[in-house]
């Protein structure tokens, strides 16, 4: 049964178009491979789909560069010269931009001012003043942020101090922590125990009467009271 004739025109349905492209691309690459094997030909195919996907085929016996070099030699067309000239022009423009930027930086530092006219000097002065204003505003903002942080730390320290003094006053009224009658025979010490850095406490250390015969037992006679938990 003969196949019907297909009208050659763009396939509007995107799914059908992609399916047709894939099938015919594979068929084309298959024919190119057959030409390479049967006829010892050098074949190169480059295809870009409607979705900008690149597909290519080249005979295994030749590289892409060799193929294009052979094309230039056979056709007399230089494929790389125009591209090289374009790259050279782009490089020249970039060098010029870089040169202008360096000159502007030096002018803002007070150098290379000899060739500037009066209007240019006025513009440079205005730009410098605006830059100084922006820098000063940023500096003041940074200083303000640091001051706010320090104020918070001070308020936090004051709150801790008030809490400690309040707890100290409460414990001072407790007979267990009251003042001793003969203060001359005792020594007291207040501080933060080093092994509880994360939970500070104020401790009072009371020594037994300081007689010579009891000096060897001072360590065992320490009585420790935790004033703050």
Automatic annotation (TrEMBL):
SUPFAM superfamilies documented for this protein: SRF-like
Listed GO CC annotations: nucleus
Entry keyword Nucleotide-binding: no
Family annotation (Pfam families): K-box (PF01486), SRF-TF (PF00319)
GO molecular function list: DNA-binding transcription factor activity, RNA polymerase II-specific; protein dimerization activity; RNA polymerase II cis-regulatory region sequence-specific DNA binding
Domain K-box stretches: 84-174
Cellular location(s): Nucleus
Entry keywords, A to Z: Coiled coil, DNA-binding, Nucleus, Transcription, Transcription regulation
Ranges in coiled-coil conformation: 77-111
Source superkingdom: Eukaryota
GO BP of this protein: positive regulation of transcription by RNA polymerase II; regulation of transcription by RNA polymerase II
InterPro entries: MADS-box/MEF2_TF, MEF2-like_N, TF_Kbox, TF_MADSbox, TF_MADSbox_sf
Positions of the MADS-box domain: 1-61
PROSITE patterns noted in UniProt: K_BOX (PS51297), MADS_BOX_1 (PS00350), MADS_BOX_2 (PS50066)
Stated name of the protein: Putative transcription factor, MADS-box, Transcription factor, K-box
